């Protein structure tokens, strides 16, 4: 259980939701860059976001494997 | 009670919603302003690491070999020009650039200017003065009169104030001059001032000019139509080296006003990038209703197009500031500027040219060579073959009888001491001194018609004569660049839309 949240949440759920979150952020970033080139990159680093997305994917897969 | 999955999903969806809102807010810039600031005073290593992770609104200085960066020092500009790309989320109508710098310039590099790309095809930057060594320190032995940002320098006392000079100039032209081109100007709007030449003298002259050489790419011309109406003919040859279609456009201007234009579309059968040289395509442009007078003719085209056999019913035909004459045979031109810059883009163009009786050997491609004619008046340029891009702040023509320069001489780095001016009038705001001999200068200009690609403007810092390779002319230290864009805000747009 992760106790940092004001409610109880298990690791598997957190991993899955963080994966969805970073996926959506990357999607929004890519879409913004297509429509307004440079705007998203001005405030956010795609490399860091992609690394976080990959980490959340691995974490999520590990949690799924552990459950099995 | 909501399940944890809905709670956490609500939280991150809210975060993404605010992210989209933030990006939309930045794009719209509801206040109508946008500021981009880059400080070069932080340690270079830390800056290179870029801990924020985001890119900067001011791109890296390029070309990199013209700049240097100390361990904890400012940006050093060693050669010119230096370019930056400047991000702005949307177009704005005005821009103000504030530069904090320390100039280490010499009398061979007295002028530091900055500005934005206004026309990509003609590669024309709109420059404004940042620092001028002469105007900051005064011209030795000359009397200086100031009125707001206008500065008048006179070799001998003739006027008591700037308004008195302006009145005399506006009402009597340059009657007060002892020589024909006694006044040099710098950064002045001359729309309400008398022309540098009395054009009445030219009316009735013969009206046919043939330019004997081939010209590659975009060019601008001054022409004088003694009888009115325009008849222009020639040939266009497509080299098909670039991938874009190569339409050409002729525009005719009177002052800053565009009067007419003619587009010659690219309907040639050869494929782009095929390197198959097309057969010359003839064109003939006739425009009636133009009164006799001085006009600027603009030929807009990519470097793929060669203009040949140019024939025009004008009594003068001068190429403005830059000429790229091509062809295998010898080329002979004249210019009225005291210096010449030359550049070769291909090894076949490397050669030795003669300028005003002095020789200049071009041994490297892409390097800009420069020669000072050491005398004023009309100077001859002889080249064994074409292919060189020649540039200066004067006019080029095929013969002295075709040369017409209606512009006032500009105060440039070659202006002293030999050009024989008696007056120099400049619109120049002095730099603001800061601590440790740093200076701060600001330039402003309209931004609505500046060139913008992928949400970025192109900013140029120019110190003519500064040569990174030769180490000539000193260097500049740049501590900080702040660019403020301004324009209509969201409220103004809504008011406009509602007609309030």
Describe the fold and architecture.
The complex is a heterodimer of chains A (68) and B (500). With 68 residues, chain A is an all-alpha fold. Helices cover 76% and strands 0% of the residues of chain A. Chain A has helices at 11-35, 39-43, 46-67. The model of chain A has no long low-confidence stretch (mean pLDDT 84). In chain B, 11% of the residues lie in helices and 42% in strands. In chain B, 32% of the residues are buried. The interface between A and B is medium-sized, with 27 and 25 residues.
- Helix run count of chain B: 5
The name of the CATH topology of the domain at 36-128 and 432-488 in chain B is Jelly Rolls
Taking all residues together, what is the mean pLDDT of chain A? 84
- Tell me the structural class of chain A: mainly alpha
Distance between the termini of chain B: 50 Å
Q: Please report the total strand number of chain B as a whole number.
A: 33
The largest β sheet of chain A comes out as:
none
The pair of chains with the biggest contact is: A-B, 27 and 25 residues
Please indicate the percent range of residues of chain B in DSSP E strands (runs of 2 or more).
35-45%
Helix content of chain A: over 70%
Q: Determine the number of helices of chain A (DSSP H or I, runs of at least 4 residues).
A: 3
| Broad structural category of chain B | mainly beta
Distance between the termini of chain A: 18 Å
- Can you give the helix content of chain B as a percent range? 10-25%
In sequence order, what are the helices and strands of chain A, one letter per element?
HHH
Shape of chain A: elongated
- The first-level CATH class of the domain at 36-128 and 432-488 in chain B is given as Mainly Beta
CATH architecture tag of the domain at 36-128 and 432-488 in chain B? Sandwich
């Amino acid at each position: 259980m992760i106790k940092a949240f004001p409610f109880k949440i298990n690791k598997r759920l957190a991993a899955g939701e963080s994966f969805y979150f970073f996926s959506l952020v990357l999607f929004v970033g890519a879409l913004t860059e297509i429509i307004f080139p440079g705007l998203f990159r001005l405030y956010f680093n795609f490399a860091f976001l992609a690394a976080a997305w990959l980490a959340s994917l691995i974490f999520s897969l590990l949690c799924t494997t552990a459950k099995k | 009670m909501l399940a944890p999955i809905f709670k956490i999903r609500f939280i991150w969806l809210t975060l993404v919603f605010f992210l989209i809102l933030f990006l939309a807010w930045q794009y719209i810039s509801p206040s109508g302003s946008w500021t981009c600031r880059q400080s070069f005073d932080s340690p270079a290593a830390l800056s290179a690491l870029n801990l924020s992770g985001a890119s900067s609104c001011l791109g890296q200085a390029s070309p990199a070999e013209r700049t240097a960066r100390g361990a904890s020092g400012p940006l050093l500009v060693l050669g010119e020009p230096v370019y930056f790309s400047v991000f702005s989320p949307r177009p704005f109508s005005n821009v103000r650039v504030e530069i904090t710098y320390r100039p280490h310039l010499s009398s061979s590099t007295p002028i530091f200017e900055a500005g934005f790309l206004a026309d990509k095809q003609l590669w024309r930057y709109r420059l404004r003065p940042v620092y001028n060594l002469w105007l900051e320190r005064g011209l030795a032995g000359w009397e200086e009169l100031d009125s707001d940002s206008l500065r008048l320098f006179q070799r001998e006392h003739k006027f008591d104030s700037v308004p008195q000079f302006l009145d005399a100039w506006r009402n009597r032209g340059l009657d007060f001059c002892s020589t024909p081109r006694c006044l040099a100007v710098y950064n002045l709007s001359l729309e309400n001032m008398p022309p540098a030449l009395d054009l009445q003298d030219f009316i009735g002259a013969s009206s046919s000019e043939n330019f004997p050489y081939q010209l590659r790419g975009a060019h601008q011309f001054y022409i004088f139509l003694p009888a009115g109406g325009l008849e222009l003919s020639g040939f266009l040859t497509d080299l098909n080296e670039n991938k874009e279609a190569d339409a050409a456009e002729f525009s005719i201007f009177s002052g800053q006003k565009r009067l007419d234009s003619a587009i010659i579309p690219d309907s040639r059968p050869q494929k782009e990038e095929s390197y198959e040289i097309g057969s010359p395509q003839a064109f003939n442009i006739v425009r009636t209703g133009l009164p006799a007078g001085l006009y600027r003719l603009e030929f807009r085209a990519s470097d793929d197009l060669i203009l040949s056999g140019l024939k025009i019913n004008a009594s003068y035909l001068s190429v403005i500031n830059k000429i790229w004459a091509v062809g295998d045979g010898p080329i002979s031109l004249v210019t009225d500027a005291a210096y010449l810059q030359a550049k070769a883009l291909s090894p076949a163009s490397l050669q030795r040219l003669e300028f005003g009786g002095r020789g200049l050997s071009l041994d490297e491609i892409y390097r800009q060579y420069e020669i000072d004619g050491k005398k004023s008046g009309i100077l001859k340029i002889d080249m064994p073959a074409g292919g060189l891009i020649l540039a200066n702040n004067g006019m080029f023509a095929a013969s002295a009888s075709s040369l017409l320069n209606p512009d006032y001489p500009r105060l440039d780095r070659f202006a002293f001491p030999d050009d024989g001016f008696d007056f120099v009038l400049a619109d120049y705001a002095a730099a603001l001194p800061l601590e440790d001999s740093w200076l701060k200068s600001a330039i402003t200009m309209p931004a609505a018609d500046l060139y913008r690609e992928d949400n970025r403007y192109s900013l140029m810092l120019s110190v003519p004569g500064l040569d990174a390779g030769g180490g000539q002319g000193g260097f500049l230290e740049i501590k900080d660049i702040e660019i403020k864009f301004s324009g209509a805000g969201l409220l103004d747009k809504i008011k406009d839309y509602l007609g309030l």
